[in-house]
Amino acid sequence: MSRPLPARAARLGLYVLLAALSAGFLFPFYWLAVSALKSQGEIFAMPPAWLPIPPRWENFADIYRETNIVRAFLNSVIIAAGHVTLALLLCSLGGFAFAKYPGAPGARKLFAFVLGTMMIPGAVTLIPTFIVLTKLHMVNTYWALIVPGAAHAFGIFWMRQYVASHVPDDLLQAARIDGCSEFGIYWHVVLPIARPALAALGIMLLIGTWNNLMMAFLLLRTPEMQTLPLLMYLLQGETRTPFGMLMAGGLLTVVPMVIAFLLFQRQFIAGITAGAVKA
Amino acid sequence: MLLGKSAWLAAGRETRRARCHMRCARRQSGWAGRRARAWAAGAVLLAALAAGGAAGCGETASTEGPAEALAADAVRDPQAVAGHIDVWGWNIAAKSLGKLVPDFNRRHPNVCVNVSMTGANLQSRFLLSLSAGVGAPDVSQLQMTDAPKYIATGRLTDLTAVAAKYEKMFSPSLWRNCIYKGRVYAIPWDMGPCAVYYKRDLFERYGVDPEGIETWDDFIAAGRTILEKSGGRTKMLPLAATGLGPMFEILLQQNGGQVFDEEGRIAVNSPQSAQVLATLRRLVESGICANVTMWSHEFLAGLKSETIATYPMAVWFGGTIKDTVQEYAGQKARWGVFRLPALQGGGLRTSNLGGSVLVIPEQCRQKAAAWAFIEYALCTREGQLAQYRNYDLFPAFLPALEDPFFDEPDPFYDGQKASRLFATDLTKIPALNRTEDWVEATRYLEQSLTRWAAGGMAEDGFFAHLEQKLRRRIGRGVSPAPAAEARADAY
Amino acid sequence: MPTERAEGTGLARGRGPACGGAGGPRRLLRACVRRHWHFYLFISPFFILFAVFGLYPLLFSLYLGFVKWDGLTEQTWVGLGNFAAMLEDDILAASLWNTLVIGLLYAPLMLALAFLFALALNQPWLRLRGLFRSAFFLPCVTPMVVIAIVFGLLYSPERGLLNYVLAGAGRALPFLGLKPVPWITSEEWSKAAVAVLVTWRWTGYNMVLMLAGLQGIPHEYYEAAKVDGAGPLARVRHITVPLMRPTFLFCGLLSLLGTVYMFDEVFVLTRGGPGISSTNFGLYLFNISFSDFRFGYASSVAYTVALGVFAAAMLVTRRSRLGGGAGEGSS
Question: Looking at residue B43, what is its pLDDT?
C-alpha cells in the first residue's frame, strides 16, 4: 500500500462520499421502519423522533385487526406466483422455440414481430384491455392480473438469447435420438440448463407484478381481492390517514421485495443489463 | 397527541364489528357464479394456449341475470327484510351512517349493515365497479354534483316505486338532481347551505361588527379593515386563484344564474354570470384573499392560527372546524357564524355548496335491504336529525328542519343558534340545472377562471368564450334567451 | 425497444430439424410447416395472448379515438372531434408541460448522478461495491406506493423531516439561504417534490445500466491513454464519455418514456396536485380514462401522444447515430 498520500486521501474521500450517499438513499427505508413503530403523534412530532422509543408494536396489531392484510398478502402472493410461473413457462417455451427451430418457415419474421410488439406502449391499450377483461368476466379475479402480461416479448427475447448460446444443439439431438419428445426436450433438457436465465427473468417479473398498483386499482374491485399495494393506497383516507398502521403495512409490503432483491440481485442486475446491452 | 387516530380506529372498530356480523351470512350467490365463470374463462384461455389452436377464447355470453327490481311494497314488513349490505361513504359521512346502524337494526333486525370508509378515489372506483359489473357496494354515497353523470349510465336502481312519495319532503333544488327522464335514481342526503365562519376574537380585536356585513362589498370592506389593522398578517378568507370554481358556484346561486337552462342548453353567458364575475374580481383585487387551495395544509392551518379570519363555507365545514380546533387543544379560537353576504342589498343571503346523495347500484342483489337502510337514514326525521347532531350533515329532508333542535344554541359558536341560521331561506336557493356533463362543464369553467385570474381579470368576452368552449366540447346547444330572470321565487 | 441488433445475433443454425431452402414449392413448404409443428405450438401462447391483450386492444383503441364513449352508455361517432378537442385542451397542454418540466428537473441530474456513481463503482480497487450498489439500486425494486407515502411524510410542510432539516440548516448556515419549502402543498414546488422522488428511485437503475456500459469498454484503451500521459479526467472525457454515448442515449430514452408514462409516483405522492401542478401525462391519461371515463377522447390522446413520443425517440436516436458515428470511429 505504498500509494502517494493524495491518492489515498482521494480514495478515502470517495468511500466517505459513497457511504454518505448510500445512507441518504437508504434513509427513506429507515424512516419507513421507524415510523412503523411510532404513534401518530410521534410520526408528526417536532423535532422528529429519530428512534421509536418505546416501539409501538400495536401498529402491527392494528393493521391486522383493522384491515384484511393477511388476505391481501395472500392475494399478492397468489398473483405474483401465478403470473411469474405462467410468464416463465410461456417465455421459455417461446424462447426455446425461436432459438432451436430456426428452420421453421417464418421463424425470423415472427421473432422480429415479437420484438416489435415491445414498442407498443401500455397506455394505448389500457382501456380496451379493461373492456376485454370485463367481457371475459375476469375483472376482480386473479386471472386479470396473472394472464394479460404473461406473454412477455422481452422475456421471449431474453430466454431465446440464453438458450441459443447456452444449450448445445448436440445435446438436443442426443435427446431426440434417445426418443425424447420435443416437449420433453424442453422440459428435461432446456429448462434445467436455462435456470439462471429463468431466475433473472423471474425476479424481474416478480418485482413488476408485486409492485403493480395501477392494474390492481383498475381490476380488483372488492376488498377480499385487494393486493398489498392496493390496500396501502386505499388506506390513505381523504383527510385523515392512520399513518402508524399504514407504515406497519408498508413495511410488510416492502420487505419481501427487499429480501427477494438481496437474494437474487446478481440475476436481477444481469436481467436489466441485458435490456441495455441490446440497445 | 393522537391527531384523530382514535376516531379513525373507533370507526374502524365499528365496521369491524359489523363485519363479524356478516360472516355468518355469506351471500353474493351472483358473485360465486361470476367467479366460476372467470375460472371457466381462464381455463378456456389456458386450454387454448395449451392446444395452441382456436384463437377465440370463449366469451361466456350471458351477462348476469338482472337483479330484481324494487317493488313499491319492498319494505312493507320490516321483519321480512333481510340481508347483508355494504355501504360506501367517505370519512365523516361514513362514520355518520355507521352510527345509525344500531337504531336502524331496532327497526330492521335482519339487515346486516357494513359501512366502509372507502378512502381514496371513491368516485373512480365506483364507476369502475359499475362498468365492470362487479364490486359496487349495495349503497353508495355520491357527490350531488356527480349524481347526474352516474344516473345517466343506467347502472343505478330505479327507485321511483318506493321513493316518489318523498318528493315534496326534500328541497326542490336537490331533488331535481336525482331525477333522470322522470324517474328517481337517488335520494338527497345532506346539503351545504352556506354562511361565513369567523373568528370572534379577531373581529373584536379589530373592531369589526359581523352583523354589519350584508353584502359582499361590506365583506370586502371589513376584510380591508382587518388586513390593515393586523398589519397585513390576517387575510379575510382563503381563496386560491386556481380554485375559484366553488366560489363562482356559490355566488351564481345567489342571483339565480345558470350554467345550463332547463333543457340542458348552455346558459352561462348571462347578466347574472357577469355580476358574479365582477364580484369575484372585487374580492380577488381587494387583496383580502389568502391564496391557499381548499383543503391544503395552509388552508387547514388557518383554522388554528391568525392567518385567516373567516371561511365562507358550507355547513358541513363546521365539523372540520370543530375537529381541527379540538385536535390542537389550547388554541381554541372562539368561532361564530354570520349569514352569507348577498350580491346586493336585500339579496339572497344563503347558497349551497356540496351535499351528497345515496344510490343503489343496479348490480345490488339486496335491493330491499338497501332501500330499507336508505329510507331510514334519509327519509325519516330521526335518521336525518341524528346525522346532523352527530356529524353536522345538514338534512336535505325538510321535515327534519322543523325539529326544536334547530333552535338550540350551539356552545361552540358561543351560544349562537347556528343551525337555525343555516336553515333559513333554504327553499329559496334556486336549483342549478345539472346535466350529466356538469362535472366536465365546471372543469372548463374553473380552468377559464384560473386563466382569467392569472391574466389580469379582463371580463370582456369571458363568457362568450366559455360558451364557445362548452359548445364545442360537450356538444350542447346554446340557450336562446340567457337565463335572465332570477328564479329564486320559482318555488 | 430498439430491435436491430437482435437480428444481427442470428438464429442459431444447429442440427435441429431443418428444411430445405425457402422459396421451394408450396407443397414442400406445407410439409415443412407440418414438420415444425412443435415450433408453432410453442410460440402460439404468445401470439394468442398478444391477439387478445395486444392486437385487439390496439385496434379497438384506434377505433375509440373516433367516438365519444364512457364505457357505459352508447357510443357516438365524432370523427375527428376528439383530435380537434385536444388542440384546446388546457389540461392536456398543462400535463405535457408538467411532464417536460419534471423531466428537465430530474433527468439531467439523475443521469449525471448515475454516471458518477457508475464511475465510482467501476473503480477496480473499490471494496464494498455490492453494498453501495444495493443501496443505490434498492429504491427501484420496492413498491412505489409505500415509498411515496413515506416521502409524503418527509415532505410534510410543518411536520416533515425535510423541512426540519432545511430550517435547521438555514439557521446554522444563514448565508446559504435555506428555508422550509411547501413541497407538496404548493403549485410551485410540487414538481420539484416529484422530481426528487423520481431521482431517488431511478438513479440506481440507470447506474446499473451505465455500469454495464462501462464494463463493456476494453481496458486497453485506458492503458493506452495512460501511456500517452492522459490524467484520469482526460481519460473519462476522451474515452469513457464518447464510448458511453449509446448507453447515455438508451438511459435518456428510458427517462423520456418513464416521465411521460409515469404513474405511481404522482398518483400516490401528490395525486397530481395541488391543482394540476404535478399532473404528468401518464396521470392525466389515467384521469380522463378512469375518473372521467372519457374512453373515446382518452384513446385519441393516448394514440397521438404515443406517436409523438415515438417520433421524438426516433429522431433523437437517428440524430445521435449520425453525430456519434462520425466522431467515434470504429471500435
Answer: 57
- Residues in chain B within 8 Å Cβ distance of A65: 16
- C48 vs B55: CB contact, 8 Å cut-off? yes
A chain contacts of residue C204, beta-carbon cutoff 8 Å: 25
Cβ contact, residue pair C72, B55, below 8 Å: no
**Pairwise CA distance, residues A272 & B256, whole Å:** 62
| DSSP 8-class letter at B196 | E
Lowest-confidence pick of B41-45, B342-346, B394-398: B41-45
For residue C139, what is the DSSP state?
G
For residue B95, give Cα distances in angstroms to B17, B285, C310: 14, 40, 49
Mean residue pLDDT of chain A comes to 87
State how many domains chain A has: 2
Q: Tell me, rounded to whole angstroms, the distance of Cα A26 from its chain centroid.
A: 19
Q: Please name the residue ranges forming H helices in B25-142.
A: 29-51, 91-107, 122-132
Q: What percentage of chain B's residues is helix, strand, coil (to nearest 5)?
A: 45, 15, 40
From A65, A233, A240, residue closest to B16, measured CB to CB: A65
The residues with which B183 forms a beta bridge, in sequence order, are: B180
Does some domain include residue B39?
no
Whether pLDDT at A219 is above 90: yes
Q: Phi first, then psi: what are they for B13, rounded to 5°?
A: -65, -40
Flag whether B113 is in a domain: yes
Between strands B289-290 and B237-238, the pairing is parallel
Q: Show the domain range for B138.
A: 13-23+69-185+355-407
Contact state of A156 with C212 under an 8 Å Cβ cutoff: no
The CB density around residue C331, as the number of other CB atoms within 10 Å, is 9
CATH number at residue B18: 3.40.190.10
Residues B436, B396 share a domain: no
Is the link from the previous residue into A54 a cis peptide, with omega within 30 of 0? Answer: yes
- For β-strands B139-143 and B352-359, DSSP reports them as antiparallel
Helix (H) or strand (E) holding C214: helix C190-215
Query: B438 and B329, same structural domain?
Result: yes
CA distance B57 to chain A (A): 8
| Residue B279 confidence (pLDDT) | 94
Q: Is the pLDDT of residue A160 over 80?
A: yes
Residue B6 lies in a domain: no
State the ipTM, two decimals: 0.89
Are residues C285 and A123, on separate chains, in Cβ contact within 8 Å?
yes
Instruction: Assess whether pLDDT exceeds 60 at residue A245.
Output: yes
Mean pLDDT of C11-25: 48
Query: Looking at the structure, do residues B441 and B298 belong to the same domain, yes or no?
Result: yes
Confidence (pLDDT) at C322: 61
Nearest chain B alpha carbon to C155? B297
Q: Mark out the alpha helices in B337-437 (DSSP H runs).
A: 367-378, 381-391, 398-401, 418-423
Please give the pLDDT value at position B65.
Answer: 46
State the chains in contact with C (3 or more Cβ–Cβ pairs under 8 Å): A, B
Cβ contact, residue pair B57, C48, below 8 Å? yes
- Across residues B420-431, what is the average pLDDT? 89
With an 8 Å Cβ cutoff, is C290 touching chain A? yes
Q: Rounded to whole angstroms, how far apart are CA atoms B138 and B431?
A: 28
What residue numbers bound the domain in which C315 lies? 83-140+190-323
> Confidence class of residue A76 from pLDDT cuts 50, 70 and 90?
very high
* Interface touch A137/B9, C-beta < 8 Å: no
Domain of A147 in residue numbering reads as: 59-278
Distance from CA of A134 to the nearest CA of B (A): 5
Q: Which residues of A touch B3 (CB under 8 A)?
A: 40-41, 44, 240
Q: Determine whether the interchain pair C72/B242 forms a contact, defined as Cβ–Cβ distance below 8 Å.
A: no
In chain A, which among 47-76 make CB contacts under 8 A with chain C?
47-48
**Separation of first and last alpha carbons in chain C:** 23
Q: Given an 8 Å threshold on Cβ–Cβ distance, is B42 in contact with A44?
A: no
Query: Taking CA atoms, what residue in A is nearest to C141?
Result: A207
